[in-house]
Amino acid sequence: MALNPLTMVKTGGSIFIALPLVVMLLSLLPVYILFVRKVAITAILNVLRAVCLFVFLQYLTLYFIQPGVPAMQTAFRLAQFTLVFYLFKLMMSGSQAKDLMNMMLVSFLSVVITIFSLKGITAYSGILIIIEASVLTVLAFVVLLQLISNKQTAMPNEPGFWIAGGMLCFFGMVVFMEAIAGSQLELSQQIQQEKGFIVTVADILRMVFFIVAASIAGKNRKNNNDHEEPSMPPLPPLPSRPPFKIKY
To answer: Compositionally biased, Pro residues: which spans (predicted)?
Structure first.
């Protein structure tokens, strides 16, 4: 749903400053939760923490340090794609699927780097945005189907369910907005701001899903500790016999 142009003109400045700050704040909460609750960091949670810190750095750089630099946007977008793709690879269950994803990632990065070296780092930016977001959306959907098919897994109590759900909401919205609005180079500044606003709101929702995932990981650790078998108490000491006295 598009925003009212009058509202955008009046409140656009404050909104487009406040929303990135909200994303930056929310991106630090999963890291804080995992640290405070002393959750055992698995490979998936470790990459999740890296993704959250990366999102914080991305918004800090693109909105406050170096705003409006297309080369920086492309570099951060490609780095985020690589990091999230690797996270999904860890969440896959089959070894063949992981090997296939490794080949896909290496091939895609090779093609993209070749295009950047020949045409420039901003070449085909609109097409690459759709391709990257579409691939990650499909992977998030596959991970969710994998969790649904596993009847032994309670999905609301699985951090991977919330991680994949957050990724699906965010990258699905990116694909939807790109499909409707088209390439950024053909859009007016007004429409670009509206599209950026909606994508940022979707990113806020993604961070909320990550916070839930980190909270569930900490809750599962507490439940595991509560269900551990108590250690056996030490055996009581043997009763001592009084010394034998010889009477003369």
So the answer is: 231-242
The residue behind tokens 């985020």 is 80
187-244: per-residue pLDDT in tens? 667 777 888 899 999 999 999 999 999 999 978 665 555 444 444 555 566 555 555 4
Structure tokens at 223: 């439940």
Q: What is the residue whose two structure tokens read 């070296």?
A: 117
Please give the Cα distance from 120 to 123 (Å, whole number). 6
Crossing angle between the packed helical segments 189-226 and 159-181, to the nearest 10 degrees: 170
Give Cα 8 to chain centroid, integer Å: 29
| Rounded mean pLDDT, 18-29 | 96
The pTM of the full predicted model, rounded to 2 decimals, is: 0.82
The CA distances from residue 168 to 17, 90, 144, 178, 236, in Å, are 25, 16, 9, 15, 59
Neighbours of 210 (CB within 10 A): 27
Report helix angle 70-91 to 125-149, nearest 10: 20
Q: Are 75 and 57 in contact (CB under 8 A)?
A: no
